[in-house]
Structure formats: structure tokens, C-alpha cells
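Z., the sequence and structure:
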Amino acid sequence: MHLRRSASFLVLLAAVIPSGTLLAVDADPSNYEAVVPTLTPGSTLTLAAGTYTGNLDLVGLQGTADAPIVIEGPADKSARFTANACCNTVEIVDASHLVLRNLTIDGGGAAGVFGVSAKGSSNVVHHITIEDCLFIGHGGSQQTVAISTKSPTWGWVIRGNVIDGAGTGLYLGNSDGSQPFVEGLIERNLVKNTIGYNMQIKYQSAWPAGTELPTVVTSTVIRDNVFIKNDDPSPDGDRPNVLVGGFPVTGPGSENQYEIVGNFFFHNPRESLLQASGRVSIHDNVFVDAAFGALRVTNHDLPLRRARIYHNTFYSADTAVTFGSTASEGDFVAGNLIFAGAGITGSVTNEFENLVFDVSEAAAVVANPSLTLGEMDFYPLPGQAQGAALDLSAVTTDVDFDLDFNRTDKGAATHRGAYAGDGRNPGWQLDDGLKTLGAAGGGSGGGAEGGAGTGGESPTTNNSTAAGSGNLDEREEGGCDCRAVGSRRDHAWLALLGVSALIVGAARRRTRSRIERHLAGR
């Protein structure tokens, strides 16, 4: 069924159409605020091109796994939401199985106004997909975040988005470890020119009770993303491009891990490209241009417990891989191709079959060892970067362990580095755009709507203490806070009004009232 009706008629339909009925609904800047609360499982709301000056309050929207609620704009992202100084632009409250797609979220340079936010310890928000959106104008301060979660969340998919120039691109979890981000799938995003982190996923203390977080072992998959920093200063402290924190030491979540696969990390003038603790699998990534160490695994807020680092390519760094601490549950460091001042340093115990060269030797091994985006090519020359077949039996439970950076099958795994081949690179040209995948792409794990599936001490780098801390000074850690969380409201009585003006006004007032009540009770 395809409906093109006024807001008042949509509210009437919400009262009489059974939940789960598939609805295709249109809205525009004049009426979307009244339409959004009427969405039911299976609804798809298509937003017209235009500038939306109100916020997008997603309160109580409960889809299902089989019938998510979808809110999408035109493919060219011409449905543009602009920030208001009072509030985060998109606030997700008490919602699940919800998809946002093809929207532009413009922060307008306002400090502390987040693009997408889910916050509050009592806020139950899970299985949220943010896909193919553009985030701009979130660089008002280092604390301004494009996508932020500050509530216990699970099953999020963040896919295909471009985040350009934010203070922090993605900040998932809370600074005190109290709001865990669990079972996420973060893939094929481009995050560049951030003041601080491209992305940080915070460490997790003991999980809060009564949240319905999945207690089976899960992974958060970080796959096929492009993470780029520039040379601009970070006034609140230098940050790695990406930092992931540890999991609870015991109890639910303690056996979870991060799987960091097929990403391109480029340029950091004052910090690492990636820092990790907890339980991590890091393979088939390309790391280029770090003034200090490219990859650092270490005790941080929580200990380093397990580190699998294999089939990565490193170019132009003081050190490729630094173990700042011993991985208490073991390590596996193999098959990497390294062009750096030093290869693998620190407390590593299971290191084998890595190739380490000086940066000056790279031209004899790979196609075009350059620091210029769009020109660099680290695909091996014919007959280069080869060795004995690598035994990967210890890592077969890892996501995509048998696929290289181009998502090509590794075969006997005789290659070294991120590419399983030699000669001409058949895959994506390293650049400052979204990573594209060829016919072999797609990989495994994670669906279109849902999570990735089952599956400390400060660093001592030779940069500042603030840089090594990996923590934001979160003066505005929840973003703008004039709205709140609450349960799904009953819209049926609105249909009885029968007057469009009253419906629009009532919908707006009820949303604000619930938000104010939540704030008062927090």
C-alpha cells in the first residue's frame, strides 16, 4: 500500500491499522514531526528533499527484526537536517529495529550539538542502523560528536556514512565505562578530518543489570572503513585515529572481542593510527603514515588480554606494532608486511613469518609506496612479499580470517601483508573516499538490520600524556540536553481530533513533555 496523505489522516491510520502492516509514507519539512510518531513495524517514511529545521526525535519507535521501521531521504541525501543550539539533531529514545538512511545531518558548527545521539542509562536502544548518511558541520569543538551512544546499546549497524570535519567522528560508550556498546557492525564508513578521534569505543566496566544486553559471546566488527586525520591541532589532547577499549574482566561481555578487518588507516602527525586493549583481532588492514607507532596494543583503562595481528601492511611509521603490555591470554603476530623504522616491539611472545623492511626498500617490493592519496599502491610486485604457507588454524573463528583487504580468498596464505596476490592490484585504490568492494566483496557477518552476530594503564608513547590517555575531556559528553527519554506513547486518541492543526501541535507538545519528564527524573 502506498499512501500520500496529510498528517492528520496518517494519525488516524495509526489508530486503526494493525501493527506490522507495511506502510509507505511520504513527508516533508512541513509535516514530518507529526508523521514520525505514527510509524509502526514495517513502515517506511520517505522524506522529501529540503531543509528540515526541526529536530528528528525518534521516541518509542519499535520495529521488529522482520519489519524494521525505516526513515530515509533521497539517494542524493538532499533531505538535510540542520542543528538547533538547544538539542542534538537526532535523538533516539526507547527505540529498536530502526533504520536511518540517506540523510544529511548538518551541525552548523555549533559546539556540543551532536548529530545522532542515544543517551541515558534507562534508555533502551538496540538494533539501530545508520546507513549512507552524510555528517557535516560537527567541528564546533573537539567534544562535538557526529554519532554518539551514552546508553547500553547493542546490535547497531553504522554503515556507508561519510563523517567529515567533526570534533569526534564516532564516540560509542561512556567515559566511565558504564554504558557499553555491544555487538556492533561498523563498516564501509569514511571518517576524516576530525579534531580528535575518528572513532573511539569506550572500555566497559561490569554491565548494568536489566538491560537485555546479549549474554552470549559476541564481536563488534569494524570492517572496510577509511579513517583519516589531518594536521590540524587537537586542543583537548592528541588522539589516535581509532581507539577501542577493553571488556569487563569477568561476567557478561568478558569474552567478547573487537574484529578490526580490512580498514585503511591514514595519517596521524602526533599519535598512533590505532590503539587497542581488551581482546582484539586486527588483520588485513593497511596502515600508512604515523609519526610514531602505527598500531599500539596495551593495557589502558582495562588490560590487554588477547591480540591477534596478522596479514596487515604498514608503511611509513616510526614503529609498526608496539606491545605496550603483555597480552595475558596470548598473542598471534604473523604474516605482516612492514616498511617502518622498527617492526614489532614490546612484550610479544608468538611472532613469526613477518617481513620487515626499511621504508627506503619499499619500492622494490610494492607497486607505488607513496604518501599521496589516490596514488599510493602497496600491492606487491610480481614475486614479492611471499613466504611459506601461513598456518591460520589458530584464528579460524575470526570474521573474514580467510579474506584479504580486497576481500579476495587467501588460498594457501603464502602472501605477506594485506594483499593476497602480486602484480596488478585488482581492488580499491587507496584514497579519501568510501572503500568500494569488487565482485568478491561483501564478506560475512552482520545483516542489513542488526548487529555483527556472535561470533588500564596509560600508553608510554613518545608524545604527550594527554595523547596517551585516550580519553576525552567530556564537558559536553551527552551533547545538548534539552530533550529526554521515555516510553512509547499511545497515538490513538489523536485520531479523534480530526483537525490537522491540533494534531501537529499535540504531537510536538507530547514529545517535548516526555523529554522534559525524562530529564527531571534522571
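Residues 204 and 247 are 5 Å apart (CA to CA). The chain has four helices and 39 strands.

Let me know what you think.
H.
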